[in-house]
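just leaving the lab so this will be short. below you get a single protein, a line of residues and a line of whole numbers that encode the local backbone shape. id like you to explain what the token line says about the fold, in plain words if possible. thanks a lot i owe you, the record is right below:

…
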Amino acid sequence: MNTRTLRGSIQRLNYPITSWLGLLAAAVAVSASVLPAHAAPGPKDPGSSSALHSLRAPVTDENFYFVMADRFSNGDTTNDDGGLGNDPMMSGFDPTKKGFYNGGDLAGLLDKIDYIQGLGTTSIWLTPSFKNKAVQPEDNSAGYHGYWITDFTQIDPHLGTNDELKALIDEAHSRGMKVYFDIITNHTADVIGYEEGARKTYVSKDAEPYKSAAGDEFDDRDFAGSKDFPELDVKTSFPYVPVLDPAEQNLKVPAWLNDPTLYHNRGDTTFVGEDSYYGDFFGLDDLFTENPKVVDGMEEIYKTWIGDFGVDGFRIDTMKHVNNEFWQEFGPEVLSYAKAQGKDEFFMFGEVFDTSKSFTSQFTTRNQMQAVLDFPFQDAARNFASKSQDTRSLQTFFAGDDWYTDADSNVYQLPTFLGNHDMGRIGSFIAADNPGSTDTEQVARDQLAHELMYFSRGNPVIYYGDEQGFTGPGGDQDARQTLFASQVPEYLDDDLLGTDATHATDNFNADHPLYAKISQLAALAKEHPALRDGAHQHRYASEGPGIYAFSRTDAEDQREYVVALNNSEQPQTAEVPAYIGKRNYTRIYGTGADEVKSSADGKLTVTVPPLSAVVYQSSGRIPHSKAAPAVALQEPAAAPADNGRINVTADVGGTSFYEVTFEARTAGGGWAPIGTDDTAPYQVFHDVAALDAGTVLEYRATVLDNGGHRATSQSRTAAVPAPVLTMQKPVEGSSVEGSVELSATADPEKSSHVVSFERSIAGGEWTALGSDDSSPVYSVTDDLAALDLDDGTLVQYRATMTGPGFSVASEPRTATVGEAPQPDSVTVAGSFNAELGCPKDWDEACPAASMTLDPADNIWRLTVDLPPGQYEYKAALNGSWDVSYGADGVLDGSNIVLDHPGGPVTFRYDNRTHATTAVYASQQPQAVSAVGSMGLELGCADDWLPGCDQTQLTLDPATLVWKLIVPDLPAGSYEFKAALDRSWSVSYGVGGASPGANIPFEHDGGAVTFRYDHFTHLLTAG
């Protein structure tokens, strides 16, 4: 659930906000597309209005099975080592290690295709299956997962051959099933190094701009989306000089991938800001996707797999880390090619790992892709089914679905899921969220999550193994167990839900309660198609845990299905509004009355058992309206969460089934549809990012009732808003000295923007500091040292920009010169204070809730033991509410929400950012090593050994800080990093970046303490 759009409408208070769910549920987010680029062709008569049905694209009724081939079934043991020999560090095959190939393959998938189809699967989605770099020694891991590609034209030999893939696809097609490929356009395997060293720290475009082969500086965003791009020189164009090992100069296929100038070559990403687009993912070679050579090359690669093998669609990895212009070219071109091959249902969806619909929807509207994985749904489903949160949060979640509505796509196309290979499994979330719960309860919650996914809008995705109750302690390798018998010790320790089986045996049990439930849900949706792609209309949400209800209605069939789900642990009864009064509804799913009759005013009384769902079908169709209802537009306005869109909402005067089509036009232009909504509240978010600020748009809405009648509103106008600037650095309230980095972003972003920065000292005049035209993050540096300011001086910074029809400035950021003085005390004041023995909740001066300052890192901490529950809190300074900080470190900000599983929790407050957070021992790694060039001095067999006992830190349970005290380290110049779990799989260097540059350490000799904070990933010595 995204609450950022709501906070601006809630008045700031100097006391705790103890109730906000009512406001949250009432504040409804809304959506649409861009004119004219993303608008459908308008009617021939510019004066006539469009009355359209809500779009149902070809793919709104798929049941996906997402499977990692290496971890499913080993059908051919002869390909286990990929033909690379017996040495695991060469072949990558070691069935005893979770980070290596375990033996599964395409032959195993084909052999077990009956098992997959038995779940009701209509589409098999494979993790990347192209040939990978078998082992990357720097990571002490293998490419079993498929994300280290060297040859985009060949199936990885560990998994089989191209012919075996064709055989799998042909067999699936013969059964009426589809096969989807997981593809990558962002990066390749780690092959390129730098003359300056491997895996270097990121260098920004402002610090070192790109240079053409002729030596001219340029911003690549000025050329992205065009066929022109400056020629580059491998020696002079990049901040780092890329080099290739002679043995790997022609490793990649196709051959164009071996050209180092087709990569960004800026060092490793921190996944934030500019470097999230340009940086290498843990050393993986980041492609220069702004260059048309890369765009054309990727299009040709993936067209081949469609044309030659009949692949039915693509899931696209790391979509948000690639520039918009790439998708705006790649998506339509590949889709057009697929349709030319006769694949009218070809479908692509992207991975945009974010829970904000205003952001994820940009890729289907602004960037013209068909769909994205519904990460917001995953978050909402877990909160509902696993955490039993207030059902009104689910109401608010679905109310935001219109962010995805435009002329050629909507939310019904999105694949929905409950867990995956990166974040972890739904079974593990349920176990973590409900400590001490029985297996029966955990299975019930798991089934409830699947009921929500199968009965609500979208295309459900089953992550392989979830149907067998797989769990695991976390994500990534911990969530990639084999369905065939495992030899991995960590997997053998897992507790599976709904069974006494372990990973020591095969787990293809069609009688498992979760397999049976998923199969049942798929069969029910097939029998009643409205449950898959009928209009999803909110009906009822209880206060707190309880019943959430919605209806599904097919626009043609007009039978209403009422779905009610109960996330509480007691039976619940509710009066659920329906379209039809005095009508019998028959139960087709769940436990309850066989039939219920709606009241005269259309209320359906339903009782739902604990942690379960019921579905009722109306005995007849919704009566036809006799006349179209009145329709009127609200005042169109810029969307709070996306300044590049205008929220257009229509009020409809009726309670039956309606569909509302929104249209827009510019001055002198024709009307063009921008989206049709089939659920109240009726709205779209029109994407106007491509238009100039101040451009006047005219809107109207036409309602179509179920009797074929229509009515059109009076039109209303709105102007495209000016861009909004937001300072990113420095952090509000932080301490600054010396050289201060300033940065800002613009919404919406355009490559033509030029952003200037200004400074004000102690409330004085604003002074210009410089400007930057290098998108997407604009930055300059302020040399405070030259001003010789006293410590404690307040300095403000702001960003400004002018353009056609606008002149804007950001909200200022205030910082303090020198180290900010610490408060006398910090109290974690919240709704749990009474549990700590305080006289009352929200006690700003209670000693039991008082934090302790750690002078080693200037972080305030408090560890307490709390019962399970949902709490809210803030940081109150100096024992009063005069100064308090809430969510995101905002002064007098909204309450911070804590979903607590029960047991110890550590609160931490950073006075530099004013952010207060809660961390858990369960989030900590199993081990942390201060590994570096001092290994021999500490008694290790060699330097840089992450498994050496003498370099292991110990976790302090009171502070959750890892520490290693070395009584006597010889003087010298050292370098070190933090390595987790006694390996190089995960490590952190300078600034907490992963893997990051080595941390330098000049030591005079004597005792030294190494400290690691897993919240910041910072390792220090002192």
About this structure: Confidence is low (pLDDT under 50) at residues 1-46. The two ends are 42 Å apart (CA to CA). The first strand starts at residue 64 and ends at 67.
